[in-house]
Design brief:
The structure is a single chain. The relative contact order is 0.16. Helices cover 31% and strands 15% of the residues. By secondary structure, it is an alpha/beta fold. The chain has one domain: Alpha-Beta Barrel (TIM Barrel), CATH 3.20.20.70. Strands 1-2-3-4-5-6-7 form a seven-stranded mixed beta sheet. Helix 4 links the parallel strand 4 and strand 5. The protein binds iron/sulfur cluster. The site of iron/sulfur cluster has 11 residues, from loops.
C-alpha cells in the first residue's frame, strides 16, 4: 500500500491553506499513548483512523521519505494560496530529524510560508540541541503534546520508550521558547481509564504556564475514538 507524503485537511475546522507533510515510516513513535489512534498491528493497516479519514488517504509509508521526495510532494500539491506547511503525519515526525532539518531549510528557501511541526516533544532523548537546530533551519511554530503534569501521569498515559521522556520534554519546551519558536502545548481531554488518575484542566493550564507557554498557546483537544470503517 502506498501512503501519502503531502496531504490536506479541508474541513470547516481546518483551514484549507495549510499543506501537511508526512515523513514517518510505519507510523513510528517513541511513545505508545493509551489514547493514540494509530493502527497498532499490521492487521489494522488499511483500516485507518479518524486522522487518515480527514486526510483523505493512507499515511502508511514503508520507508522514511527523503528530502528530495518530500520536496517533490510539496511541489505537486502546494497551492498559491497556501500560507503554511505543517510537518505532522501519524506517529512522531522528529524521528526523521535530519530530513526535517534539511527540509525546513529548503522550504524556507523556496516558499514564502510559515513552517510548523506537531511532535511528542521527546526528541532530546535522541538528538542534541534539537530546538536550536530547528530554529536555525527555519521552524516558526511547534505544537507539543504535553498531556500530563507529572512523570507518573505522563508515563501512565504515554508509555514512553525513554524513561527520561517527561523530563526531556519539559526541557525541550523551554528550549523552543528560548529559541523564539511559537510554542504550543496540547492536552488530550475526555479520555477516561479508571486505573489512570488524570489531572484536571486548571492543573494542566497552571503547569503549562509554569513551563513558559503563553495562555493562548495551551490547546485542549477532545479525545476522538479511532474508527475502522475507512478503506483505500
Ligand atoms: S505521541 Fe502521538 S503518535 Fe505517539 S503514541 Fe502518543 S498519540 Fe500516538
Amino acid at each position: 500500500m502506498k501512503g501519502t507524503i503531502a496531504y490536506r485537511f479541508e474541513t470547516p475546522t481546518y483551514p484549507g491553506n495549510i499543506l501537511y507533510l508526512n515523513l514517518i515510516s510505519n507510523y513510528s513513535c517513541t511513545n505508545s499513548c493509551v489514547f493514540c489512534g494509530r493502527p497498532k498491528s499490521r492487521k489494522e493497516i488499511g483500516q485507518p483512523n479518524i486522522y487518515e479519514k480527514k486526510a483523505g488517504s493512507s499515511l502508511y509509508l514503508e520507508k522514511k521519505p527523503t528530502v528530495k521526495q518530500a520536496l517533490n510532494a510539496i511541489a505537486a500539491k502546494i497551492k498559491p494560496t497556501d500560507n503554511e506547511i505543517a510537518i505532522v503525519g501519524l506517529g512522531e515526525p522528529l524521528l526523521n530529524f535530519l530530513t526535517v532539518e534539511k527540509l525546513l531549510t529548503e522550504i524556507k528557501r523556496k516558499y514564502s510560508v510559515k513552517t510548523r511541526i506537531d511532535t511528542n516533544g521527546t526528541i532530546r532523548c535522541i538528538f542534541k540541541n534539537p530546538a536550536q537546530r530547528l530554529a536555525k533551519a527555519g521552524l516558526d511554530e511547534i505544537r507539543i503534546s504535553l498531556n500530563a503534569v507529572s512523570k507518573k501521569e505522563y508515563d501512565k498515559l504515554c508509555n514512553p520508550i525513554f524513561p527520561q521522556a517527561f523530563e526531556e520534554l519539559q526541557k525541550f519546551i523551554k528550549d523552543c521558547i528560548k529559541e523564539s519558536i511559537e510554542t504550543k502545548a496540547s492536552f488530550v481531554e475526555d479520555f477516561k481509564r479508571k486505573e489512570i488518575k488524570q489531572s484536571g484542566r486548571k492543573e494542566r493550564e497552571k503547569f503549562a504556564l509554569s513551563l513558559g507557554i503563553k495562555k493562548k498557546n495551551i490547546i485542549f483537544r477532545k479525545f476522538m475514538k479511532p474508527i475502522k470503517v475507512w478503506g483505500f
